[in-house]
Amino acid sequence: MANEMCHLISLLTLAFFCLAFAFDPKPLQDFCVADPNSSVFINGMACKNPMQIQANDFYFRGLNLRGNTSNPFGFMVQPVTVAQLPGLNTLGISMVRIDYAPWGINPPHTHPRATEIITVLEGTLQVGFITSYPEYRLITKVLYKGDVFVFPVGLVHFQQNVGNKNAVAIGALSSQNPGAIFVGNAVFGSNPTISSDILAKAFQVDKKVVDLLKAKF
């Protein structure tokens, strides 16, 4: 029995190290510019032939332009992820410009693959995030021009312009493809939709309320 236990421990230890070192956390080459036309399916994006790389693969223009905030939420995000800037591939970083109309809101959402840090360029923002179960504590603060705030990876967070003028923020994220899950869209606008009976019980409201919310997403 002792020998069998030692053998099992050895196998588990070997499996742990195989899993732990199945990828290298550091880039193994100078860069890996994303090739959106590649048919290779990998965790991320395949590399473009280094001999075909141009300066424009590492360049994006347009963050000086104000976003169109004429939507029900009164905000617009201009992302600069690997989809817009192929040179970001494998580098673990990206950024966004966020524009807010007066009292506009970037609704509660999460970035499943990134921490986000923002700085206010114009206006005044109330920002916040919610800690995980079981506390669900709201951490919130009002930010002014030049202020910086960080949203930990995966936590639900939001920003609202609490002024009568337009506001602008720039954010940096710790992934070239951070992803975004807006709570309202995910719950009430999924495809296919979650059963209204399930949502009515989950939120302890009448089914008619759920159907009304679904109609908005």
Report on the architecture of this protein.
Helix 3 crosses helix 4. The chain is globular. The model is unreliable at 11-23 (pLDDT under 50). It is an alpha+beta fold. It is built from four helices and ten strands. It has a five-stranded antiparallel sheet, with no helix packed on it. The chain is 20% helix and 26% strand. A hairpin with a 7-residue loop joins strand 5 and strand 6. The chain starts with a helix and ends with a helix.
Helical amount among residues, as a percent range? Answer: 10-25%
The shape is globular
Q: Kindly, what is the distance between the CA atoms of the first and last residues, rounded to a whole number of angstroms?
A: 59 Å
Order of helices and strands: HEEEEEEEEEEHHH
Major beta sheet, strand line-up: 1-2-9-4-7
Sheet having the most strands = 5 strands, antiparallel
Q: Tell me which oligomeric state these chains represent.
A: single chain
Question: Count of helical segments?
Answer: 4
Weakly predicted, low-confidence segments = 11-23
User: Tally of extended strands?
Assistant: 10
